[in-house]
Design a protein that fits this description.
The complex is a heterodimer of chains A (114) and B (115).
Chain A (H helix, E strand, L loop, with lengths): L2 E3 L4 E5 L4 E3 L2 E3 L5 E7 L5 E7 L5 E3 L5 E5 L4 E6 L8 E8 L8 E2 L3 E6 L1
Parallel strand pairs in A: 2-12
Antiparallel strand pairs in A: 1-4, 3-9, 5-6, 5-10, 7-8, 8-9, 10-11, 10-12
Chain B lengths: L4 E3 L2 E4 L5 E6 L6 E8 L3 E9 L2 E5 L6 E5 L5 E5 L8 E8 L10 E2 L3 E5 L1
Parallel strand pairs in B: 2-11
Antiparallel strand pairs in B: 1-3, 3-8, 4-5, 4-9, 5-6, 7-8, 9-10, 9-11
Classes of the chains: A mainly beta (114), B mainly beta (115).
Amino acid sequence: AQSVTQLGSHVSVSEGALVLLRCNYSSSVPPYLFWYVQYPNQGLQLLLKYTSAATLVKGINGFEAEFKKSETSFHLTKPSAHMSDAAEYFCAVRSQGGSEKLVFGKGTKLTVNP
Amino acid sequence: KAGVTQTPRYLIKTRGQQVTLSCSPISGHRSVSWYQQTPGQGLQFLFEYFSETQRNKGNFPGRFSGRQFSNSRSEMNVSTLELGDSALYLCASSLDAGRSLNTQYFGPGTRLTVL
């Protein structure tokens, strides 16, 4: 069975500092991996996705993530945090073929301090 | 293109009642999935529909059901509501089913409160 672990339910950074949100996955087959962001009282917005084309994936709003098979990780980073990045971030995994089912991590709430 | 729309956005029901939530996917998308989001359990997969057929189902009791219409619109129904059904219900649509380049686009959700 697939699973996702997000280390740290809350992360706090200063404006302009590096953002690092951790995600480790478990999958018996090569996975597809996603990062979504959720702002208060809204649905999920896709930040980026890994579908085996390239290990370093660039997404929207300056975010990127690197797929590391040896570490089974897909950490999300942004060089310089902005106040508008404050939100909850979810890592998700989907298996290849057949189903659209996403398995989500528990989420990481990012706070950006001025 | 308009995004995924969900109606209603907010709903208050009492225990024992039933509720129907509606989801209209992005135009041209044929796959619709539903998720339940609660503070305790996080985001959990309910079911997935493609071409009016349920392709996959999560680990939820039979009180939770859904269907998809020929225009790809989907509804989910919860019967005999329990307090624990209070949650944000999210619908997501994608172009096809199971293809590598698929991305699920989420609607704003329906916030269900059971009193």
